[in-house]
Amino acid sequence: MALILGLAGRYGGFDLPESLQVLAHPVVIGISGLLAMAEFVGDKIPWLDSVSDAIHIFSRIPAGAALAAARPSACRNLSVIYNQPHGTISRHHHPLRPPWQ
Questions:
Q1: What is the pLDDT of residues 58-80, one digit of tens each?
Q2: What are the φ/ψ torsions at residue 92 (nearest 5 degrees)?
């Protein structure tokens, strides 16, 4: 998500909110691209995929919360509608995955 938002903000003519401008920085785009490539390759190696999933269980919720907290101030009055589904999806993503993945 950070890679897509960063690329859209840097090259796609997409205006990111001020709180998400850092995603359009070339260093952040580069690191996000490397991590996305590592995730893609890591998914093909079963033991590495399991290790990655174990790490992401603990990092996905805080990362989702940080992005939700950085949303534009115009949406602050929609916090219950906006935050609840994002937290629930982040929290329940891994238990819904089949055990063979």
A1: 887 787 777 777 766 555 555 55
A2: -105, 10
Contact yes or no for 72/20 (Cβ under 8 A): no
Q: Is 45 helix (H, G, I), strand (E, B) or coil?
A: coil
pLDDT in the model for residue 33 = 94
4 touches 10 (CB < 8 A): no
Neighbours of 80 (CB within 10 A): 8
Nearest one of 3, 39, 42 to 23, comparing CA atoms? 3
| Domain boundaries of the chain, sorted by first residue | 1-42, 46-101
Low-confidence ranges of the chain (pLDDT < 50): none
Q: Could you tell me what percentage of the chain is helix, strand and coil, using 3-state DSSP and rounding each to the nearest 5? A: 80, 0, 20
